[in-house]
Every structure is written in C-alpha cells, then in structure tokens.
Write a structure and sequence with these properties.
There is one protein chain. This protein is an alpha/beta fold and 270 residues long. It has eight helices and eleven strands. The protein has a nine-stranded mixed sheet with strand order 3-2-4-5-1-6-7-8-9, sandwiched between helices. Strands 10-11 form a two-stranded antiparallel ribbon. Helix 1 crosses helix 2. The chain starts with a helix and ends in a 7-residue tail after the last strand. Mean pLDDT is 77; it is low at 1-16 and 232-270.
Length: 270
C-alpha cells in the first residue's frame, strides 16, 4: 500500500494523455482519500513562507498529525500564522512555554490556550481539546496505547484538527528535525547573540526524499527568516595557541580568561 500511496501522491497532479491512465489515477486517488479520511487537495492552514516548502501542500493539513523535535522555537513558528489567520491554538504539557516568547514568534495570544500540566491523562486532554480547537500541540509525558492513538487519529480526521507532537508519532504527515545550530553575533569572546541558524529537515510519505532548509530561528528580530548563504554548518570552539608567559612577563591566564580560548566562527547552541 505504501508504494501505491507514493505513486498516487506524486503523480496525481501530472497531465495524463491516456483515458485509461486517468481513470486508474482517479481510482487510486479516491482509494487513498478514503483510507486517509481527507482530500489530498483540501485547503491547508497557512504557515510562515520559510516553512511552506517543508510541509506537504505548503501548510498544515486539517486532520493530520506532525512529529516535531523538542524545539519550542519551531513549534511557535508553526503556530504563528494559523493563529494570525484566526485559528485557535492549544499547547498541552509545556509548562515552561512563555507567552512573551510566543508573541515574539508571531502567535496571537488572544487565540492561544495553555494547558501546562495535564498529568498522566495528557492524551485524553489532547483529544478533548481537539474536539473544539483546530490546532493542538502536545508534549507527551508517557507512552500511549496504539488503540488510543488510533481513536485520536479518527477524531482529528472527523473534526479537521491539526496535531503537533513534540516527539515520535505514528502515521505522521511529516517529521521535522532541527540540526546544525550556529549562533551569530558573538565576536572574539564578546558581543550579543543576534540569531541562530539551523537546518530543518522534513520527511514525509508523500515525498521520495527528505527536504531541507537553512533558516534563522530566531533571527535578529526574534522571529523566523531564511538564513544567508554565508552561514554554514556548525563550527567548533578550539583552544588558542599557547601563550609564552615568561616572554610576556605576566601570569599564566586562567582557564576562563579571554586569552585562554578563541572562538572560531559562531558558537553553536548545545
């Protein structure tokens, strides 16, 4: 079935000359939509333009789930445009998520609901919220049974809600990962952090291979933007050359003095 799904997804929009091929593609498309419970060309919730190429359909598909890393910045970046477009969003199980950070990433706080600590019933709380709100983000606090996950998936399809999960999730529409972080703004041991460049990798059953984008998350303004080409992969901090203290006539520098270590490029986030 997976091979059929990939073929249908990638070729459904291509022009077809033979009527027999067109009928076969229509049949497969109808079968796929029936299995997934949603239209392949259904409208999607808008996301930031820098993230659109990383998501099937260019946005968040109603009725679908997405697997995310434990990156608060990426989560808030995904919530920003839907909330601005009028969609209510809920965040479950993230007690340290700050309203100021959410607003800085473009989230409309008047359409944001926070459930910081749902306890062991996080899945039941998430399913209940998905009944009434179009976008729900959750950080699972434990393992869920397959039957419960299947029931939640059916509820998402029925209500047309989007689920953003910080962690692995079966049958995810797309899996996003964040890597190669590089902070900008730090000079030779001094300065202010101005932004962080990261590589976001997206994998989906709808694509034959993963997609990658180099983004500033956050950028100098605290939001999201495409990273300049000059910002490359992460560079390490290496020790500077030894200092001849006898020739300089001064004491040997301590481990944490500015002379001890010299940053090469921008320092990476841990």
């Amino acid at each position: 079935m997976r091979a059929i799904v990939q073929l249908t997804t990638s070729h459904a929009q291509e022009p077809v000359d033979e009527p027999e091929q067109a009928d076969e593609i229509l049949r497969l498309r109808t079968q796929l939509e029936r299995v997934q419970g949603r239209k392949l060309d259904a409208p999607v919730l808008p996301v930031h333009p820098a993230l659109a190429s990383l998501l099937p359909g260019g946005g968040l598909r109603p009725g679908a789930a997405y697997s995310l890393p434990r990156s608060t910045s990426l989560l808030l970046a995904l919530l920003g445009h839907p909330s601005q477009a009028g969609s209510w969003c809920a965040v479950v199980g993230m007690p340290r998520l700050g309203a100021e950070a959410a607003e800085g990433m473009g989230v409309d706080l008047s359409r944001l609901v926070l459930i910081p600590d749902p306890g062991s019933r996080w899945l039941a709380v998430t399913a209940t919220i998905a009944e009434v709100l179009p976008v729900v983000a959750v950080r699972p606090s434990g393992r869920a049974a397959d039957a419960e996950i299947s029931r939640l998936a059916a509820r998402l399809r029925d209500r047309g809600s989007v689920l953003l999960v910080q962690g692995p999730w079966p049958q995810a529409e797309a899996v996003l990962e964040v890597g190669d972080p590089v902070w900008t703004g730090v000079g030779r041991g001094h300065g202010y952090l101005e932004g962080r460049a990261v590589t976001i990798t997206a994998s989906s059953r709808r694509w034959p291979r993963p997609r990658r984008e180099r983004l500033l998350l956050p950028d100098a303004s605290g939001g999201l933007s495409v990273a300049p080409d000059a910002i490359g992969p992460v560079q390490a901090i290496r020790p500077a050359a030894p200092i001849d203290t006898a020739r300089r006539g001064g004491p040997e520098p301590t481990r944490f003095s500015p002379q001890s270590y010299e940053p090469v490029g921008a320092r990476a986030a841990g």
